[in-house]
Amino acid sequence: MGMRGGAHPTDSPRPPASSASVPTQLLCLEVAHPRPVSLLKAVLLGVGDGLPVQPRGPPGRAGRRGLGTSRGCVWEAAVMSAPEPGGGGLWPRCAQSKRGRGAARLPVVPPRPAPDPAPLPAGRGRRAQPQWAPPAGSEPCQLRLYNSLTRSKVSRARGGRGGSWESGASSQHRWYPSARPGALRSRPATLPLPATDIPHVAGAASGPCPGSVPAAELGGRRPAPPPPVTLFGDTRQSSLNPYDPLVAGGGGPGSDPHAFFPTKDVFVPQDGKRVTWYCCGPTVYDASHMGHARSYVSFDILRRVLRDYFKFDVFYCMNITDVDDKIIRRARQNYLFERYREKQPSAAQLLEDVHAALQPFAAKLKETTDPDKKQMLERLERAVTRAAEPLEEAVRASLAGEELDGRVQVLLAEAKDLLSDWLDSTHGSEVTDNSIFSQLPKFWEAEFHKDMEALNVLPPDVLTRVSEYVPEIVDFVQKIMDNGYGYASNGSVYFDTVKFANSEGHCYGKLVPEAVGDQRALQEGEGDLSISAERLSEKRSPNDFALWKASKPGEPSWPCPWGRGRPGWHIECSAMAGTLLGASMDIHGGGFDLRFPHHDNELAQSEAYFENDCWVRYFLHTGHLTIAGCKMSKSLKNFITIKDALKKHSARQLRLAFLMHAWKDTLDYSSNTMESALQYERFLNEFFLNVKDLLRAPGDVTGQFEKWEREETELNKCFYDKKAAVHEALCDNVDTRTALEEMRALVSQCNLYTAARKAARRRPNRALLASVANYLTHMLKIFGAIEEESPLGFPVGAPGTSLSLESTVMPYLQVLSEFREGVRSIAREHRVPEVLQLSDALRDDILPELGVRLEDHEGLPTVVKLVDRDTLLREREEKKRVSQPEGTWPGVC
User: Fold this and answer.
1) Are 476 and 614 in a shared domain?
2) What is the three-class DSSP state of 315?
3) Per residue in 680-693, is it b (16+ CB within 10 Å) or e — as a string?
4) Residue 600 pLDDT more than 70?
5) What is the distance between the alpha carbons of residues 247 and 241, in angstroms, rounded to a whole number?
6) Distance between CA atoms of residues 856 and 157, nearest Å
7) Cβ(150)–Cβ(198) under 8 Å?
8) pTM surpassing 0.85?
């Protein structure tokens, strides 16, 4: 089959190899026709919408005009590492060229770094190849994540090595070791540090980490200089320059050669599309609260976006801390108090014990300096005193029977915390059964999983428990000691922070260097049971932390080479993550408050074990959660449990509230925050209901495809513009807040279009609105705000029931609506107001109780919507309240 119009597949120019900015995967299609534009589009729709393709003629005669049918043409579609929701590339939709009928000139991504075939000699049926360049603004976006572990300095003098970044015109940035510590190669002083100049991309002084990707392989494009960054603990803005003497080790706040600063990094996994991710799980000794929801819902959103939108193969591991000082103390206290209650102490004995417990409590109250905690302890003291007074009167009056027992139970309830702490201090060492310490975390772990399921948080691929990994932890500690970074002392093992920090190729305190030496934070990380004067004296340096703790009486213990003991807090995560993910992982996640000492200590001991400097490539920390502007803390008793929150708002509403805030920033859980989420949900839901009603309108198959006028063309352009804006927002640190705003703007345009069409008594284009609704549904599914089985829009009823409910009930409701419309028409014609009142009562009173909303529009068919019953009832009560005359009460004339 010959060519028409003088076009040939090889006439489409190819870009230079340097224009590729991300690793590319290829989909190759071999077709017999050299111009398979429509066929190619149909095939690629199954892979991804708008895939960039590259026609490549076969060798030999394939490069000439008059290609026969025996020779095929290979079309290559480049699947980018940051695809659109459908999974395809990021280039604009291809358009046919005007050069010849059906001939295609398609923008491309270079399929492979191999050079182009040599051009044919002049006069042999082929013209000179013009240089290809992508359209302005069409460069593919790359996913950038806010990484807490970005190296922004260039010298490693303190670690015994110096070096500099090579940032020449070729943009192939590399780290060059120097001959002497702290020395810098001579470079111009005007080049800012590029965003890709980071060890996990270009390699560090000790050589590239396993699986690291040179910056040149990221496309060769010189990125824009990074924006100014705010240093933690410092209000100054600092634009980092690798040749600035402060950065190079000349002193001052920017002189630390080992400093790491959080910034947005291009996300490049170590192994293609596979992502290894470890997340710090909860310490299970109490009910999960909204602080837990903030972290785990936010990480669930990030995980879903990476997996379902960017198409990464995410391996997600999370731990459960079931061995910890808090768990040990709480388990002992619960056990001792229940044993005390079972003994049924007499009223006189109970009063005596309460007074004995108040004495150390008063001393503790006097020593407390934190005003909030002091206020909480004072409230407890007043509550116990108030409960004790009636019992003391009953004892003096020699009361007996139920009245006395009732007052005893009241005092036991009010003094539970007081008595538990006192019993633990006097009898805690008598608790020796390890099973007592496992019952408490098992119960609260089960409750945690129930809460996560209620929040629609995906379960991890692997769940690790500390109690199940004790042998691996012991081996991990031993290896650290063998490498020279740990030492045994009085049955415990400590990490030698001084030796680690002074060793070649290592540094301590990468995440929060200014917190190194903060003894209050370090002691909090060690735990209340591990900060006695005896324990502190076992350390060589106050900054050293426990890898393994010798167990005291009343603590769980396991055998090890150093005597019976239990793991330290920080080593637990390192050993479990290292066992499953190896010497280097892509992502490590946790709450913002875990940065120091927990995550800094994790980094130190893991890099000491593996003897590397790249255990974690991207450290992601979710922001704090406050309650109405105040800090939330278990010790202050002002936290809201997840179960309490779900009694007031649905899991979708809570997730929307989180989506409307950046995952790394502080989120204020308040009535205003939740009202914004509720309004957004109602706004989208009304759009989905209107589209569903439009799609249910009768019509034949051909009626689904109506002629597009100017309005449809403009709305479709807005649709694609908003999709591009959503994609750009998600590439920018998974900015769901901006993405939701763009989706809101898209719905607003659809609503304006629909209203204008109805005002003109013309039916809106169903196919176009269905495409928008399906896209929004798809994005909300990716965000976890819609269950997977929902076909379009928010589901109705309980999860898993909406599909069968709507498909079963809606036909009957449609018949009922049509019957009611006919009855109303007859009643108007014959002026029968009683029938109209019954019809209104059916709409306003009866059907809302069943979760059905009827909307009457003059001159248009009645709209039937299946809505959540509670939502309709709240709307009905709100309408009654608004319509009630001011200054009157319902039912009062």
Assistant:
1) yes
2) strand
3) bbeebbebbbbbbb
4) yes
5) 7
6) 76
7) yes
8) no
